[in-house]
UniProtKB/TrEMBL annotation:
<keyword id="KW-0479">Metal-binding</keyword>
<dbReference type="Pfam" id="PF08240">
    <property type="entry name" value="ADH_N"/>
</dbReference>
<dbReference type="InterPro" id="IPR029752">
    <property type="entry name" value="D-isomer_DH_CS1"/>
</dbReference>
<dbReference type="InterPro" id="IPR002328">
    <property type="entry name" value="ADH_Zn_CS"/>
</dbReference>
<dbReference type="InterPro" id="IPR013154">
    <property type="entry name" value="ADH-like_N"/>
</dbReference>
<keyword id="KW-0560">Oxidoreductase</keyword>
<dbReference type="InterPro" id="IPR013149">
    <property type="entry name" value="ADH-like_C"/>
</dbReference>
<dbReference type="InterPro" id="IPR047109">
    <property type="entry name" value="CAD-like"/>
</dbReference>
<dbReference type="InterPro" id="IPR036291">
    <property type="entry name" value="NAD(P)-bd_dom_sf"/>
</dbReference>
<dbReference type="InterPro" id="IPR020843">
    <property type="entry name" value="ER"/>
</dbReference>
<protein>
    <submittedName>
        <fullName>NAD(P)-dependent alcohol dehydrogenase</fullName>
    </submittedName>
</protein>
<feature type="domain" description="Enoyl reductase (ER)">
    <location>
        <begin position="11"/>
        <end position="342"/>
    </location>
</feature>
<keyword id="KW-0862">Zinc</keyword>
<dbReference type="Pfam" id="PF00107">
    <property type="entry name" value="ADH_zinc_N"/>
</dbReference>
<dbReference type="GO" id="GO:0008270">
    <property type="term" value="F:zinc ion binding"/>
</dbReference>
<comment type="similarity">
    <text>Belongs to the zinc-containing alcohol dehydrogenase family.</text>
</comment>
<dbReference type="InterPro" id="IPR011032">
    <property type="entry name" value="GroES-like_sf"/>
</dbReference>
Amino acid sequence: MTHCLAYAAHEARAELAPLSIERRALRDDDVAIEIAYCGVCHTDVHYAHNDWNSTVFPCVPGHEIVGHVTAVGPAVSRYKVGDRVAVGCMVDSCQHCAACESHEEPHCEHGITATYNGRDRATGEVTQGGYAQHIVVREAFVLRVPEALDLRFAGPLLCAGITVWTPLSEHNIGQGHRVAVVGLGGLGHMAVKLAVALGAEVTVITTSPGKADDARALGAHHVLLSTDAQAMKAAANRFDFILDTIPRKHNVNPYLMLLGRHGKLVLVGALEPLEPIHGALLALNNRSISGSLIGGLEQTQELLDFCAEHKVLPMCELIAMQDINTAFERLERNDVKYRFVIDMATLRD
Ligand code: NAP
Ligand code: ZN
């Protein structure tokens, strides 16, 4: 076991504060990683605030982890000391159920071990995430960061990126598709960049008029203000595909109305009960609605490689670990441009 300095939520809604945690001694197939950067996901805020009544305190958030390998167990074959690696939202799964065998680890029939607030499969201990100096992770759940990706910007691909990449690939989004992204935050801005890189015509649907210029700078072709009833009405039936990243309970009906024939809306944001959905809005145009959860390991590596090749990088605001509470407040105010990334070197200060 090794001591590790981290930042934790000690109780619901309290400010995050330093905490010393233990990382396990290396198992045969473990990789020890010194964390260089960790992205800040809105999910971290949900857990720190115990929004889903499932947080075990103290909780060290963080599941957009990048860094360097510092040690490997004797059975590790793919990584060596010094390698640039990444860890996302999961650190283990059963590895033999139908879901795991089809590279859909997030849907492991026996449940995944989440990077934080999960349960270690061997000891039952609560897992602690990436707002920390280092982490120990089973080799199978460690990804490789291509040389062409700047480590400072790679972190957000591990959650924000893969969460939007999975539905975009599953629905074969590309040229000729009219795509709308609802909510221009961490997930939303990656969805814009990736959908544009795939060749789609992209519209950002936002509640923030001040984000219109940024949306265009990120590559969006159009911007629609969801609070502008006239503009929303004029956009009825316009889109083939809508990705909804709104982080809380909301009314999906105004967005469903924007889907054309056989249009699909995929929810990735709100993981809680929604306002009732109007059945007629689904029947009209044969619209459908579904959800999507992060993505498998193979797909995450594919995304890292795609971003390296196509130079698709998140737009990041680097912060010191000590600024995490301000970052959480700003996330709650929709004031994020467009992903906070913690420079973990500041944790020593
Ligand atoms: P974020 O950076 O805070 O972005 C969310 C954006 O949604 C905001 O910037 C805002 O954009 C818009 N928004 C916020 N409140 C809204 C409201 N009441 N009505 C309409 N729009 C609203 O959050 P994120 O990190 O992208 O995460 C988004 C959600 O995805 C979180 O709930 C997170 O837990 C969830 N998540 C899910 C998965 C998964 O596997 N499915 C993975 C990661 C995260 P505008 O200013 O443009 O309106
Ligand atoms: Zn996340």
